[in-house]
Amino acid sequence: MILPITAYGDPVLRKKAKDISADYPKLKELIENMWETMYGAYGVGLAAPQVGLPIRIFMIDTSPFAEDEDLSEEERKELASLKKVFINAKILEEKGDEWAFNEGCLSIPDVREDVFRKPEITIEYFDEDFNKHTQSYKGLAARVIQHEYDHIEGILFTDKLSSLKKRLIKGKLTNISKGKIQVDYRMKFAELKKGR
Question: Which residues belong to the signal peptide in this entry (predicted)?
Fold first, then answer.
């Protein structure tokens, strides 16, 4: 089932999400619904707060990036097969010189900006069967994970922009929070919920 994506302005996107246990109610169903929601909105990642749940789950599928001609064969191969669920994730290390990449977010439609992130990460997490893993990622894979990880920490990519950039997009963000935006996927707006 496709779930509505929570729009910028909803307090759930600002909460630090909570760990869950293996007996979380209807976990498999939630994961299936999140995959369906992500693909329905043509996303490469989705975190539980984006569907209104302040819990530490996110998923990524970087295969759309595998078409990028500028990447090495090795990178394209890694991106083509990287489809994962991360539960109770914790980034243990971020290293290297920060690099810019143009990011967007399903909760903040029609806003894309360059964001600086470290190129390599090591992350500890549980998969959907609650097996524990510690893995390292680099490049675009690391970036997509960092973006989704930020969601479970209550951080949005717009928080990483300069104050000038933030001022320039303020009007767009206000419109998104009020539901004054056209998107081709279901969204839930905080302002509309309050009845304004």
Answer: none
pLDDT band at 74 (very low <50, low <70, confident <90, very high): confident
**Annotated binding-site residue? 124:** no
Question: Would the pLDDT of 25 be above 90?
Answer: yes
- Is position 75 annotated as part of the catalytic site? no
d(CA 142, CA 91): 10
Q: What is the pLDDT of residue 192?
A: 60
Cα separation, 125 vs 47, in Å, equals 14
The residue from 75, 78, 103, 148 that is catalytic is 148
Residue pair 126/133 in contact by the 8 Å Cβ criterion:
yes
Tell me the domain boundaries of the chain: 5-193
30 is in an annotated binding site: no
Cβ atoms of residues 149 and 87 within 8 Å: no
